[in-house]
What does this fold into?
Amino acid sequence: MAARTHTRSPRPAPAGVEVRLPWWAVALPAVAFAALLLLISGSGEAHAATTDPAVGQLLARIVGLLTL
It folds into this structure.
């Protein structure tokens, strides 16, 4: 059995490339980005890390040593 050969179409190739995306290919990443941004920002519940004063003391000593 012989294999068919593909012939070229008589139309010339288009000059530009046209890419069409379905609506969800743009909407889903946008929604995911917005959800992650909301998770990162929280709802104004950001608090300073005051539970471990040793970190603050260590940073104060480092700054004190660097200013000498």
